[in-house]
Each structure stands twice: as C-alpha cells, then as structure tokens.
Amino acid sequence: MSSVFLVVYTSAHLIGAVSYPLGDQLCANALGRWTWGGQEILEKKGKDVSGEDQYGGAYTFACETHRTRPRVQIQIGKGQREQFESDCENLYRSYSEYKECRQLPNGDVETTQYDDNADNRHSWVVKIDERWKTVRLKEQKASEEECGQIEVIFDACSVSEQTADYCYMVHRAGAGESRGLSQFFSRHPSDGFFNKMQALCQKVCYGKMTVIAATRKFCPHQRPHSMESYRQEPDVPGSTARK
C-alpha cells in the first residue's frame, strides 16, 4: 500500500530528508508550514574560516506518494534533517496549538502540554508502532477542517462585490482571511489547484454555481453549513462585500 511522504530536496535536486508516512492532508499541512509566506530554508554548506555557518541554495519541499519510504541521496546537516523528518514538525505542529514535543531515538514521540494557568503539566508518549492510529485520526480531522475552509472561501465569493470581469475570494476586512488564504495556498502550491479555485469562485460570485456545489468539487461529501457568523457588513472599511 502506498503512503504520502514529505520529501525535502537540495538545490541539486537530491533527496536530503524524508518524513515518516503521512496522509494527503497532513502532508499538505506540513508543506504549507514549511513554505508559508514564501520563506526559504537555506542549505548549510559548512563553516567559514571564522567558524560562522555558510549557506548555499534553498531546500524545496514536495508531497509524494511511494510504496516505501524514499532513500536519502545526500547527507545534509544532522540538525536540519532531524527537523525536516520529525513528527513534531510534520504531524503534531499546528498554526494555533502549541505543545512541547520531542522525537525519541526509537521513533516514539513525547508531547507535553500545560493547562490554561500553566500550573499542570501533562505528558504522553505515542509509540512508533501505534503511530498509524494518530495519523488516521489527524488526517480525518485535517481533511474536515480543510473542507470547511474551502466552503468558507466559496461563501466569500458568493457575497463578494461583482465587477465587470472579476470577483475577490476575500471580502471580510480584519477577519484574518488574507492570512488564512496565504496559508491555504501554501498547502496547495500548484497553479492548477489555484486556477481551479479561481474559476469556481467566479462561477459562484456571478450566481452560476452554488457554494456547496463548488465545495463538492474538492470535498464530494461536504454538507452545507451556515456562514452568517463569518460575514461582515459592506460598510466596514476595507470590506469588498457586495452591497
């Protein structure tokens, strides 16, 4: 059976690191976190005569499907490789939730979280041979959250101001949507994906397709949700909501 891996390439297009197996959406989430905002992670090229780190080209990241974990083709910095391959980064890290996390030498992961008052410390270990259960549950949750965001994006299209030839995906000023869209498209960097979203947005904006029909082009089983709580009045400064 095939699995999805986050594969890290050097500037010479050689594999420098490979994650543990992930689901489609989990890998997309990890890809987005590593590349969000157009940030580049530079390759360490050793040290100069003064002992300072030297850097060369930038790493690139890709989600790939393989039957077995791809082999690393070139040695990169030990610390960088461990970080790229760590479940702490690729499986447990999120934009909104912070946990202390460390991957043990045997592959087990220990995570620690504090309560709201930072008084009580809760730690637990996920065994490497039980990891697949965590991946399955997190993949399901991540997919549901992604479909929810896609529905919100198309709802924004449905009430955005219409111009002669264009509608915006973002219409709620100050609602964090610009950042959310930036993170969203970092998870889906292909031009084909963006063009499909954009074309469907235009159809929804001009009333040629419903929000849920557009959403189901990506999430066939999505059920419609109320979006009233997300919407903002057209008179709010910076809003592109339809009047």
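^ that was protein a. below is b, sequence first then the tokens
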Amino acid sequence: MSDLPGKSPASYAAIDSGESVAFRFQAQPEFHEVPLGIGIDEDALDEQMRSFARDYWGNREDWEPLRRMFAAVHTANAQQLASQGVVYYALGVFPIGGTADGAVPPERISRCTLLVSTRELDNSNPVVSAAGIAEALAHSNPDGEVQPVRIPAGPAVISIGASRAVWSLPDGGEQERFLVRIELWVPFPADNRLLLFCLSTSDVHDLHRYQAILADIADTISFGGVKRDSDVMATSAHDIGATFG
C-alpha cells in the first residue's frame, strides 16, 4: 500500500471475544472513519461524532453550524448502518494532483465512501462460498462485472456496478448523477460468515483509481489471531489489481 509522506494507514481489528480477533485490514490515511457507536452509549457516540466533525471540517468558529448538522446527519446514518451489520464506515477524501508536501495544491478532490459489513453464510467452505457468491451476483447484476479472484486472505469475488439517480428541479428541469459501486466479497476461512467491502463514488471518472485503492486494502485483510494492544474495536487492520484496473 502506498502512503503519503508522514501519514500511516489506519488499522481496523474486529474483536470477536476476549483475545480472539475476527479479522483485520488497513485503509489508506485519506479515509476518515465515521463513528458507528458500536458498544457505547448515546452520550459517548455524540462526543465521538463531534470530534469526528471537528477533525473533518476543522475548528473555524463560523463553521460550527455546519459541524453540528454534519454530526447530526452522520449520527442518524451511523446508527442505521450499525443495525444492518456494518462494522466500519469511512469517508474517503483523495486529493488529485499537486504535491504531497502541499507546495502545489491539488487540482481537485475526489470523494468516496467505504462500508465494511459482515453477513451470515450457509457454507463454511470459502471456495464453495465464493463460487456461489459469484454465480448469484452474475445473475442479479447482469450488466455489471463479476469476477472470482484470489487475495492473500483466500478466495474472494469482485463486483463492479453503476447506477443513475435523477432529481426533479424547481424550474422543471432534471439533474442526474451517476454512482459507481465496487464490492469485494470475502468468505471467512472456516466460518459461516463473509466480509463485504463496498466502495462507492459519484466521481465515476476516478473508477480505476478506486479499483487500485480497494485492491491495496484487500492485500491487508487477515482473519483470526490474538488481540494486540494496537487493536481497537470499531475504531481507528492472486493479484486483484489486474481485475480491478
């Protein structure tokens, strides 16, 4: 994984119980993890969300209303996502162009969201599960791209699809936006569960960039192991690059 100078990838480790780690992966430092409130009370989530809003928008006093609205929207969204099995939620902010030291500003900013969730499976054999997932996705999304792959953590499936949203404007016109969604389905090696990464962006012209970003994340996925001091629950852990790109 390539990192910006002075920055480190954020590690995520999901703890099953005690000293047991369910899985780990690392995400690029451009991802800003959104608190989900898993395992904490409402007051603690509110404080985490206020801190997240300050980190995301900065400390300008005149931006306080924006930070409050941002925190409120993401609090409601986070609670819904957590109830649906999402264990990691992050906003990706990637400068395009410019220099890493800031001497030359970026030409533009590309944004995405990354969701990681776990789902139950009927089969604990990852090879069989991956084959079944690939077949099901190919039938449910015939216009998309589905490809079985092999990553360091085991067999997986890549799915790429696009959608189009249209809004009616007050003047009678319409506004449209396209969304690209890249999914990585990874069965657990010896469990009736799978790990699902969903990266989505409306910056569709950056598809190849985000394919490479998710490929880098996929290379860091690991299952099991012993809990380490650096592991924090729900906090900031063969070559699919060719398939993605």
